[in-house]
Write a structure and sequence with these properties.
Number of strands: 11
Shape: globular
Structural class: mainly beta
Number of helices: 0
Largest sheet: 7 strands, mixed
Radius of gyration: 13 Å
Order of helices and strands: EEEEEEEEEEE
């Protein structure tokens, strides 16, 4: 059974950093694109970043470009989202998701349970 588990969320001050991890099991990890999206209270889902299966293409939302970095380690079945220079508006539940190619958030077939990121002083 395909499973995605996020970790690494928490409380951080503005300007700080966090690294989220998404660890997968139950499928051939390196065949899938992995995306991150987030949802803040009272708001819709927002795509944050995505990395394709061959690790030769990435995408970032304009709101995080230059601050977030996505990477994958296929040997560990894990994708990372390094988040630097965090802002209060980055506060949300962050989800990772998997499919053959990068998708808009609502179209991914598989997703994890989410991890909370709170940016506050």
């Amino acid at each position: 059974q395909l499973q995605l588990v996020e970790s690494g969320g928490g409380l951080v001050q503005p300007g700080g950093s966090l690294r989220l991890s998404c660890t997968a099991s139950g499928f051939t990890f390196n065949y899938y694109a992995i995306g991150w999206f987030r949802q803040a209270p009272g708001k819709g889902r927002e795509g944050v970043s995505c990395i394709n299966s061959n690790d030769d293409g990435t995408w970032y939302a304009d709101s995080v470009k230059g601050r977030f970095t996505i990477s994958r380690d296929n040997a560990k079945n894990t994708v990372y989202l390094q988040m630097d220079s965090l802002k209060s508006e980055d506060t949300a539940v962050y989800y990772c998701a998997a499919d053959w190619v990068c998708m808009v958030p609502d179209e991914y077939r598989y997703r994890g349970q989410g991890t909370q990121v709170t940016v506050s002083s």
